[in-house]
Amino acid sequence: MFSFSTEITSSQIISDNPLFQRTLKAYELVAQHIVGDVLEIGCGEGYGLEVILKQAKSLTVIDKSKHVLKKIKSKHPQTTVLNQNIPPMYNLKDNSFDVVISFQVIEHIKDVNLFIKEIHRVLKTHGKAYITTPNSKKSIARNPWHFKEYNYKEINSLIKNNFKTYTIEGIQGNKKTDAYYLKNKQSVERFLRFDIFKIQYKIPTVLLKIPYELANRINRNKLLKKNTHLVNGITLEDYSLQEYSQNTLDFFCILKK
Questions:
Q1: Nearest to 6 by CA among 112, 146, 115
Q2: Pair type for strands 37-41 and 240-243
Q3: Residue 203 gets which letter from DSSP?
């Protein structure tokens, strides 16, 4: 994945702020539940590690990006880093972790049933996994980085095949984030008005990735320029955990072994 990819939400790029705050909210929600040995699958640029490390006895992270893992190891030398494409998860024993975290990852996974089985396998008895993924009902356009996005029924069906005890709630915003979502949707739709034959849904994802990246970055920069106060003004407090509804942006799933 490109280092500039809009798919890896950046804490450093101002135009990413609304999505960065939304992603960071999941770490805030899970912070008080961090105990013992922790595994994070797909850590992005690692901005959630500070939250985890404050409470964890040990931390292991898995990511497919060697560049990301090198930076994490340099900043947090006590962290165990594993460079893997998953699933399966190699070199991890059964019943190894008290907590497993995987935020905004499952939508990238082809063999999702194996992915969930692997999470169940490495969890200790009574351990918990925390998973977030976008609600497909709120997607504006096809994301070529995502193998599949899920609605409530689909994510529920996937989890219950492997976990008997689980909850599915939703991260949602408020009037401020709704205003940003609407402006973003209107802007994206202006881009898509030229795609009268719905080519985005017909061509292979590999051909869509570069145009998607360029258009997405241009769009976010334009939204920042036209709505600077709104883009900069969104914070963690503008997102909250609620029961699933039509306003759910991301599913927040808690799975107990």
A1: 146
A2: unpaired
A3: S
Q: Measured over all CA atoms, what is the biggest interatomic distance in the chain, rounded to whole angstroms?
A: 54
pLDDT of residue 197: 64
* Averaged pLDDT score across all residues of the chain: 91
* Residue 81, helix vs strand vs coil: strand
Cα distances from 116 to residues 65, 99, 254, in angstroms, run 21, 14, 12
> H or E element: which one contains 123?
strand 123-134
| Total count of residues recorded for the chain | 257
Instruction: For the chain, give percent helix, strand, coil, nearest 5.
Output: 45, 20, 35
In whole angstroms, give the CA distance from residue 230 to residue 108: 29
C-alpha 170/C-alpha 168 separation (Å) is 7
Contacts of 43 (CB under 8 A, 6+ apart): 49, 61, 62, 63, 68, 72
DSSP single-letter state for residue 135: B
Burial of 47 per CB tally in 10 Å (0-12, 13-18, 19+): middle
Neighbour count for residue 218 (Cβ, 10 Å): 13
pLDDT tens digits, 111-167: 999 999 999 999 999 999 999 999 999 998 878 788 999 999 999 999 999 999 999
Torsion (CA) 137, 143, 149, 152 in degrees, nearest 10: -20
**Domains and their CATH numbers in the chain:** 14-256 (3.40.50.150)
Residue type, 204: P
Decide if pLDDT at 194 tops 80.
no
